[in-house]
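User: Quick one: structure for sequence A, then sequence B.

Assistant: Sequence A:
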Amino acid sequence: MSRPNHPAKSPTMRDVARLAGVSQPTVSRVLNDTATTVSISEETRQKVLDAVKALGYHPNMTARSLRTQKSQMIALMIADISNGFYHPMARAVQDVARKHNYDVIIANSDHRYDNEKHFLEAVIRRPVDGVIMVVFRLTDEEIDRFITIAQTPIVVLGVQIEHPEVDVVWADDEKATFEAVTWLIEERGYSQVGFLGVPDDYPPGPRRWNGYKRAMEHAGLPIFSDYLYFQGDFTLESGRKAARELMTRQDWPPVMFALNDLMAIGFILELQDAGYNIPDDIAVMGFDDIPEASIIRPHLTTIAQTPVDIGQKLVNTLFDRIEGNRNGPKRILEAPCILTPRQSA
């Protein structure tokens, strides 16, 4: 009778030490890069690393977590995984985390309150060493309760979070919108500017609306209600829906400023499907500079945010807290916004 097949036993630190011809504490010091008074030669270090590679050894993270009281894991909650703005930001977070020997759990909220709440509950159930969030619905009070329970540092994208223990990365999108709309009027010569926005309970909405209003007032231009649309939700489809509504109206603005690129692109595509020309029939400007902005025809005039820089600021600020390099009051770090002229406006 044939013997049953048993799964191969995973290599242990003892196996690595035996193959490398060193002690287990030496293997531990090499793998954990532990500061120690014991000198480890480069030759010994390389023997350990060669043995690790030959055996396919992976440290037991559960055991390490019990020893160090760290999970070697951070959690990242983004607002919309389908939005290209978040892809390079998440990649930047992962790249920096990897250098710290950390893994990243990524969650998607779809801008929904229940999903943001679920994320906090999941992090409480599965502790991590730090949290990065793109917050749209959570309040300072809910974040405070989470901090009290989880006892973990948090960094958020969005200046609307005012909690004194939460570091913030933000972009001055109100100022950027003011400057962009002013540029459309003064440099591009548009006599009126429409606004494609979102409801007020989406945090970027009021800031960018205020920037738009200030630019129109600065130019001495009236704001026509027929040129305003506030039912977007940052998605491509909501941009298409806005274009369908526009096509029911007789009076169009010469240019439409959209609160983000996905809505601007959906707006353009719907009008092009109906036979209209951009920018001749109506010009369009977006906000974010996602990769699709330079793929669509005509290329989208937009305000570029810097998602890689934002991601790096978020994660480096978090690791300053995790590693004890900073224990003081909250920090607020600003990321730039850059006007990016192309052919759509």
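Sequence B:
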Amino acid sequence: MELRHLRYFQALAHTLNFTRAAERLHIAQPPLSRQIQQLEDELGVQLLERARPLRLTEAGRYFNEHSSTLLHQLDTLCENTRRIGQGKKTWMGIGFAPSTLYGVLPELIRRLRSPDAELELELGLSEMTTLQQVEALKAGRIDVGFGRIHIDDPAVMQTVLREDRLIAVLPAGHPLLGRTVSLADLAHEPFVLYPGNPRPSYADHVLALFSAHGLSIKVAQWTNELQTAIGLIAAGIGITLVPETVQVQHRDDIGYVSLVEANATSPIILSRRVGDVSPGVLHCLAVVEALRAR
């Protein structure tokens, strides 16, 4: 299937007339008929009821709706590509760890996408761990990343934006709910840690925190996503630590408790390529600083 098949079918679906569709496409009618027949042969279904008047079959209506969406997305892609190539627009890739969505990142994205922004940006958003962000930065797939792990790599510059206090997530009805707890109180509980891969990750940060206090924990379950971890905790599999911003999620089957230890924190870290002074990155950094100064 080629792009012209979609465009030819769209013209025919709009006019429901081979002659008018051919005129719109600036081709003769017989080639149009052959192209539509080729499309039907490739799909293995009939898209048109060749009667008078011409009508779309049910499969044709479905193909018309979704191919129209696809072509619109392609047109938008082409237009944005031209604008970026002409210097009228900037594309910037952002990688983010899921827990950073509860912090500064949503407001940053809103400001970067604002019609009143100084720079017209097309944003590409990708969920990934800090380690994946570093590889994506070096490969040029993203331009900035928001994660929680310090990585020693000479090609990547990291800046700690803030330290989030950590809190414990417990299943509803847990006896530790309703009071402030210590890491020692939690060390006897089974833990759900995330992400399991790739490592090092936020899970290693949690393990190191307990180790620094002379404690060790038993991991009952590894998972790769924050939401999955919270679901497992609700099911009574164990407990975990999350940044305090995550407690904006209100669920009846879990509860949050504060920690005694003031140093039980997790940083939000902005990562970018060393020496990258592209307009998009500089604009992003300026917006981040403005948000931090509030």
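The radius of gyration is 27 Å. The longest helix spans residues 58-85.

User: Thanks, that's what I needed.
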